[in-house]
Design a protein that fits this description.
302 residues, alpha/beta, Arc Repressor Mutant, subunit A, archaeoglobus fulgidus dsm 4304 fold, eight-stranded mixed β-sheet
Amino acid sequence: MDFRGELQALLDQIPPGRAARCGDLARALGDVRASPAIFRFLREHPDLPGAHRIFTERARTTGPQALRKLRGDGWDPAASPFTAFQGEPPLGRLRAEQLRIAAKVSRRNGFRTVRTIGGVDVAYAGDRGFASLVVLRARDLAVVEEVLVSQTVDFPYIPTYLAYRELPLVEAAFRRLSAPPTVLLVDGHGQLHPARCGIACMAGVGLEVPTIGVAKSPLVGTSDRRPKIGEAVPVRYGGEVLGYALRTGASIKPLYVSTGHRVAPRTAVRIVRRLCRTRNPEPLRLADSHARQWKEGKGKRF
């Protein structure tokens, strides 16, 4: 999805003298959760044609200059916001794609022995993404290989659509490995997702590798209670256990572990628990650290 292009197509529909809210644009894109991303994008790109016609939900424009342009257009503050956008919502198409991929996800283990485990994470500096994919040997957690990849990212962060922002970086790093890991941990959700298809599912199906989603905060689902240290409590959504809240240490904040692809839910919990020397599993802890160091110019470049 060309986010800038889709947004511009909506801005072009707003008549002179009229204004719309970020939430109206988000609904036209197909999901109101895109509203903060739209506001950030317009704030960072004030020269986008028509950007001055957009309000936040609190009736503020994207800036003083935008307000002056609106008044120059003959804008009537008493007029109702423009909402009559035409066209198929592009985020709706992405959600439909997630549902199709979700149907391909397997909750059965696609391996007999876990020999290597990978972890991938992405750090950002502006519109530049820095991905680190670290592969560890399962028996002693020694680093076997690491790949670093940097690319321009043109899709903003929108909750439940993380894969469309980060998957190109994840895939680029994965393709550069000398050998795929037995299991890949992804910093994000697997089946604990409104479409049962988070970034770990999309990576697993697309790359044909067993994956586990490990997230620090929930998107959907409820659990009966807070887990004790070392305990995993089922998280249910839509009447089904889609993952587990796993407490790995003294922090009361659990990790949210769920199947990405070709890993059984309980196997996913066992693997992640075994990898936690600190709150986060070691492959993801290293990937996060190395991605941040590289972003800050302190790490090696490939």
